[in-house]
Design goal:
about 800 residues, mainly beta, five-stranded mixed beta sheet, 9 helices, about 55% strand, disordered N terminus
Length: about 800
């Protein structure tokens, strides 16, 4: 939307009065009465935002506006209700209170929300903090956020895990729309979004099904960028860096500008790296734990590049814009071994295939149309529209010793999505939005590891969200109903699977989600948030229809439509019972102190999930399951022993996940600031069995010192031993990671620019993440230093 920089002078007032709009003037000041320049005053429901001038003054149209949201860096947000003010003919004085917590508004929701003004726990990373935490994958970028871990399939692929949930339960979005990749069906698949050109990343912990659908039953990570610009103010950012741990080079840049009513945005990035250095041999040696020296994680090199171009037509109260983006990645897949040979290969070539590298080649083209238009049409305050089309292709390649690359498996998908939010003007104190959504995904997997059949998924949804301010209470209500249909084609993988009837391959679900929440400002500095959610989730294509080897996880996977029976001939695959929807009952409690030099956020949550989908180890391997279908003989026996995979079956059971999260912020002085945080999680099935790959407890601290042009940042994160294990899991040792960053703002430069030196894993600690399928094959990178320059206008 357009940002209006207004001087509270006669000209502005006259212009407003000429249009029969009553003008409201005001000033934003500190508790000591000093003017705050650059404070943002948002007219809720009007699609308009003004910014205070150098004297802290602003002017807004008063007509039909009752609620103002005021935000300024370093201060706690203020909510102003005009009907509670004594005399609006006089300038309004808004006094802001200092806050040790940086409070940022959330962009990806149809209703106004911030990190301190929501019943549900929300985190937002933006600005310099985001630039400092930027990594080559989204999972690593967010790995040290409270309640968030990473699946870590080596440094080339990692997805966020929110409160122990990942895969199809955590939705990754770009500007509120699904990223449209296959990262939700396997940990070795890269998330096709880029943090280096983002302006902020929003994390919704806990069920976010009301806003984003049943695939967000565990939470949402929304990456926000300016590819569709909302204004034509000139702004830009760039980063150039080199990291020694993998000889990695990064370049990224973004710029937004325009003329008159046209806004234009362009951004791009390029990154390449060699194999990562690690502190110990990649494969864990349980007998000799004292191995030291320099080592590398084989096949972890990669390169990637991408860019976006977008333009918007700016209106008096909103904008309409379109963007096109492209992304290309080529990287090795560490710990990835194929067990099959090519039918047309001779013995010598087969040996090369076994020893050759496995590569992942990804390409994606993405269109987005976004519009936000404020209206004055009775109850309708505005219409926000988001539409996206994504064409995604991902090929796994075998690179022979000769350099030739042989395609093994190809994943391709197309995603179409349309969401329309109808913003409701305040009626009887309630303000809200009605959301209509349609989405269609087509997933096709071809090749030797085609463990998921071709599937077309369609989703239709209607959602209503309402909120009301009543004194010291903010009430939030919501409901969503969805219809999800999955239509699959039987997989032809050559194994002895039962004939699948059309009924099994056409699954339909109707998830219903309900939410109630309240935020109680029981003290000017404190609030208490309570959120109760009933959420339902339709199973994904992989959970339902999987039937084949998933080499990334080293398993042979069977979907929930199958079962394993045993008779006199031995174990064999049969059809199972009808799959059920997951049903989650979630409660979140949040206590926040958001004013003063000490602030904190304390969260407690309990999530009970009925019909929880999980991969259960059947105790069988592929030889045992299929041996009675194969010819006997010593040669066949030897081949099976070489290529056996454990058989895992998607089953459903009731599960409970509960835990604590805490963050404490301390503004020690104008130069010193400290942050302490920690999280703890328990996750069990109904019978008391622990769920696999659950994050261990963590405690961490961060110290930031700023003096003149210098800034120093020190981080230490201690991850405790994980010994609450699922069947056949091994424990994971504790470890402590220490990072530090020193930056210097360059003088005499017309824009903000700084050079920086960042040290990562300074103690060269061996750290193996319990959440990773490659825990015993790929420790995190060793000691490395990143040097670079970054700037912004």
């Amino acid at each position: 939307m357009k940002k209006c920089y207004l001087l509270p002078g006669l000209l502005t007032a006259c212009c407003l009065l000429a249009n029969d709009v009553i003008a409201l003037t005001g000033v934003v000041v500190t508790s000591q009465g000093k003017a705050i320049a650059g404070a943002k005053i948002t007219l809720v429901g009007e699609g308009l935002e003004v910014v205070s001038d150098d004297l802290g003054q602003f002017t807004v149209p008063q007509e039909r506006v009752d609620e103002l949201h005021v935000a300024a860096p370093g201060f706690s947000h203020q909510v102003i209700h005009l009907h509670e003010q004594d005399d609006l003919s006089e300038p309004l004085t808004i006094t802001m209170q200092v806050s040790a917590i940086e409070q940022v508004d959330v962009i990806g929701l149809p209703l106004h929300a911030s990190t301190m003004e929501s019943a549900q726990p929300i985190s937002v990373i933006s600005g310099e903090e985001l630039r400092s935490k930027q990594a080559s994958t989204l999972g690593e970028t967010l790995a040290n956020e409270v309640g968030v871990n990473t699946s870590y399939f080596g440094p080339v692929a990692s997805s966020p895990i929110i409160r122990g949930l990942d895969g199809p339960r955590v939705l990754i979005t770009q500007n509120g729309l699904d990223v449209g990749d296959v990262s939700r069906i396997g940990p070795d698949h890269v998330v096709s979004t880029e943090a280096s050109t983002a302006k902020q990343i929003e994390i919704l912990r806990g069920p976010a099904t009301l806003f984003f659908g049943s695939g967000a039953i565990g939470g949402v990570v929304n990456v926000v960028d300016d590819r569709v610009p909302s204004d034509n103010q000139f702004k830009g950012a760039y980063t150039l860096s080199h990291n020694t741990v993998a000889n990695q080079n990064d370049v990224s840049a973004a710029i937004t500008s325009g003329v008159v009513d046209l806004a234009i945005h362009a951004d791009g990035f390029w990154r390449e790296n060699d194999d990562y250095r690690i502190p110990v041999p990649a494969e864990r040696d349980h007998e000799n734990e004292q191995v030291t020296g320099e080592h590398t994680l084989e096949n972890s090199a990669g390169d990637s590049y991408g860019g976006n171009l977008g333009a918007s037509w700016l209106l008096d109260k909103g904008y309409v814009g379109l963007s096109f983006g492209t992304l290309d990645k080529l990287n090795g897949v560490p710990g990835h071994h194929h067990g099959e040979e090519h039918d047309d290969a001779n013995a010598e070539e087969a040996e090369h295939v076994e020893e050759g590298r496995v590569l992942s080649e990804l390409s994606q083209d993405r269109w987005q149309l976004i519009s936000e238009i404020a209206l004055d049409a009775g109850w309708l305050a505005g219409i926000n529209t988001r539409a996206g089309y994504t064409d995604y292709r991902h090929t796994e390649l075998h690179e022979l010793d000769t350099g030739a690359r042989i395609p093994e498996t190809e994943f391709s998908s197309t995603t179409q999505q349309l969401r329309i939010d109808l913003l409701q003007r305040e009626l009887g104190g309630w303000r809200g939005a009605t959301s209509l959504e349609f989405a269609e995904d087509e997933l096709d997997v071809q090749g030797e590891e085609a463990f998921t059949p071709y599937t077309e998924t369609q989703r239709y949804a209607l959602a209503i969200m309402e909120e009301k301010h009543a004194g010291s209470l903010l009430w939030q209500l919501g409901a969503r109903v969805e219809h999800v249909s999955l239509d699959a084609v039987a997989s032809e993988n050559g194994d002895a699977l039962p004939a699948v009837e059309k009924a099994q391959l056409q699954q339909q679900f109707t998830p219903v989600s309900l939410s109630f929440g309240t935020v109680w400002d029981f003290h000017p500095s404190y609030n208490l948030g309570i959120s109760l959610t009933h959420a339902e989730r339709a199973a994904s294509a992989g959970e339902l229809f999987a039937a084949g080897p998933h080499t990334a996880t080293g398993t042979y996977e069977l979907g929930a439509i199958y079962a394993i029976a045993e008779d006199e001939e031995g174990p064999h695959i049969t059809l199972g019972t009808a799959p059920q929807m997951e049903r989650s009952a979630n409660i979140d409690l949040s206590l926040r102190k958001h004013q003063g030099t000490v602030g904190f956020v304390l969260n407690a949550f309990y999530n009970n999930i009925n019909n929880y989908y999980y991969l259960a180890n059947t105790g069988l391997d592929t030889h045992e399951l299929f041996s009675h279908e194969e010819p006997a003989g010593a040669e066949a026996e030897a081949e099976h022993e070489a290529h056996d995979l454990p058989v895992y079956l998607y089953q459903q059971n009731d599960a409970a996940l509960y835990g604590l999260e805490a963050e404490v912020f301390w503004q020690i002085s104008s130069n010193w600031k400290a942050r302490f945080w920690g999280d703890a999680l328990r996750a069990r099935l109904r019978d008391g069995t622990h769920l696999p790959r659950m994050p261990a407890h963590r405690l961490a601290t961060q110290w930031l010192y700023q003096y003149s042009s210098w800034s120093f940042d020190l981080n230490a994160v201690h991850t405790f031993e994980q010994n609450e294990l699922a069947p056949l899991e091994t424990p994971s040792d504790a470890y402590t990671l220490v990072d530090a960053q020193l930056s210097y703002s360059l003088p005499g430069v017309k824009h903000r620019a700084s050079v920086f030196l960042k040290g990562e894993n300074l103690t060269n600690e061996e750290a193996r993440l319990h959440t990773s399928f490659l825990k015993d094959l790929a420790p995190i990178p060793g000691r490395g230093f990143r040097i670079g320059i970054r700037g912004e206008w």
